[in-house]
Amino acid sequence: MSGTQAWGFTDDRGEQLGAVRVPRRVVAYVRAGAALYDLGVIPVAVYGSAHDGDAYDPAKAGVLEAVGVPYLGPGRALGETVLRELRPDVVVDVTYDGKTPYALDKALVERLGVPLVALSVGSELDLPAMLDRFAALAAGLRVGGPEAGTPPVTGPETGAPGAGAFETGAPGTGVSEAGAFEVGGPPAGAPAVSAPVPGAPVPAVPVPAVPVIVGSDAVGPEIVTPVTVSPAVGPGQGAALAEFEAAEAALREAAARSGLGVLALSGAGPEQVHLARPHAWPELAWLAGLGVRLLDPGPGPGANWLTSGWERVAELRPDLVLFDSREHATPPYALPGGVRLAPWNPETPPSPAAYARFFRDLVEALAP
Questions:
Q1: Contacts of 220 by beta carbon, 8 Å cutoff, 6+ apart
Q2: CB count, 10 Å around CB of 323?
Q3: Contacts of 146 by beta carbon, 8 Å cutoff, 6+ apart
Q4: Which of 51, 83, 53 is nearest to 194 (CA)?
Q5: How far, in Å, CA of 244 to CA of 238, rounded?
């Protein structure tokens, strides 16, 4: 390990990030923060996207609101002072294009001089690979997490002595030197007041040498090579992966029995709807590989969505509609008679526990 780099991580933009000690204070985009929480890393605060308002979107919040993790409002409306008061050691965002952080300005984090990690949630990775990347980041952050017997870090007024921005070679970046610990790899308001984060401390758990294979028996054109996910990035992760695999198997069986045509969409008012292109969403592509009969909206503009009138939904004749349950989306306005409905969060936290819950809900929706 280098004398100047105690922590390193290469994110999904190819950015080699580093710090002089393992980050303890994590600020994250809400989707990433919810996944990290599931994986045993407690954020000191989270922020939203341009779609979000001053309060948590219930579909995105997961358990973060219930356990008291502060929500700061839309990320691109945040001021530098707010982030500086939180004294983050690392900021975690997502990227859809493999180039740009989705919900926060890169320049803002660069001025803080802390690493900005952006993990892919776009079509570049399949679902297990996406889960693997969040697990890898959480494993690295768990190395520097709170020790047993100490309360979790709760906000800018608390924390270990001297906690604050890391000094790196260039603002927002760090060069991972030889020997450093490194894990490879659609779519303003005032900030909320920081609140304490309750809950028991989460001890660090070493990552075993032999990983668990997730989705190894999945079939379909979208699934070629299984991707491994490390099972012990936090307490209970072995159980979470077992639940993911069990839910995946149950969904495969339910899809084989039902044969229902499934259409995923996001309502945009009484005149317009965004229809999801299954291949562009890691979880939808994975569902197709498990045998769920996903309906493609057909040719037209838009990489992730085809925007049309509601009459296009009737033309596709779905048996089951997965409707966007996020707060900014509108409920389905015009559907053929007899169509089943089930909620779908296009920003499900990338953790095995969250996707196991989604798979189980879909099993019920597909049931006779």
A1: 288, 289, 290, 291
A2: 20
A3: 24, 152, 153, 201, 202, 203
A4: 83
A5: 10
Percent pLDDT > 90 in the chain is 68
45's tokens: 């605060």
- What distance in Å separates the CA atoms of residue 312 and residue 167, rounded to the nearest whole number? 54
H or E stretch including 85? helix 80-86
- Cα atoms in the 13 Å half-sphere on the side-chain side of 314: 8
Q: What is the pLDDT of residues 282-296, one digit of tens each?
A: 999 999 999 999 999
Three-state SS sequence of 99-139: CCCCCCCHHHHHHHCCCEEEEECCCCCCHHHHHHHHHHHHH
* Whether the Cβ atoms of residue 151 and residue 308 lie closer than 8 Å to each other: no
Give the dihedral sign, CA 31/35/36/42: positive
Q: What is the pTM of this model?
A: 0.76
User: Of 201, 32, 57, whose CA–CA distance to 130 is shortest?
Assistant: 32
Measured between alpha carbons, how far is 272 from 326 in angstroms, rounded to an integer?
A: 16
SS3 label, residue 229: strand
Q: Are 341 and 332 in contact (CB under 8 A)?
A: yes
Are 119 and 12 a contacting pair, CB within 8 Å?
A: yes
Single-letter residue type at 153: V
